[in-house]
Sequence to fold (251 residues):
Amino acid sequence: MSSLRAFAVSLCGDKERADDLVQETLYKAWNHLDSFREGTNLKAWLFTILRNTYFSERRKRRREVEDADGSYAAKLSTRPEQDGHMDLQDFREALAQLPDDQREALILVGAAGFSYEEAADISDCAVGTIKSRVNRARNRLGDLLDTKDASGDDSTLRAAIASAGPSGR
Amino acid sequence: MNEKEKSERRDEKPAGNEMDITSAETESASHTEELERQGMSRDLQGHIGRQLRASFDEVAREPIPDRFLQLLQELEKNGQNK
Fold:
């Protein structure tokens, strides 16, 4: 349960929205208990419902505000939603810059403790796809954080993020 | 995920799954080497891994909001009764 909530926060970068997601996930799970197969992994099942809910809302929202260029993610990352340690703030901003599918794969495998196979089941894709998303996510984060560390100056990270993002914002 | 869940997970999979587990571990080692070839230092990889878990765990350690607890208890109870 606590890791489901942590997954939601990591995914959408906004605690309030994350808690709404968790609540919706629990209600959906409650209403669809008959589709849960006994003896299977309850945690993975809940994670699947949550990410499906998140991505379908995301698609809806994207159509509404024509957000295909990722400006929504950029906006999220600059909002001071996280009240955690400052040293994690830069990391979270970098994480929010990743494409949704890469961020999801990295969190499932790198933080939530799922195997590549389980993450592939949750994301409904091939194991190779998960591996490649995790790989790209790490490389992109490495670029973002490396720039930051080398300069020690926050503005450099922002500049790097801005130049790596889509033009015309 | 606890060991019980892991073993349940394995049980539902078709035969030959033991191979997957072995190859997943090997995969992880070669993955590190692959990233290193691409110019990412072990330090930076470790840094990303630690930050990722720290960020996740910080939220995971927070108390679960009350509104979820009751809902979850009912969910688990019914899951067991099925």
User: Anything to note?
Assistant: The helical segments of chain B are 3-12, 17-37, 42-60, 66-81. Residues 23-80 of chain B form one domain. Chain B has four helices and no strands.
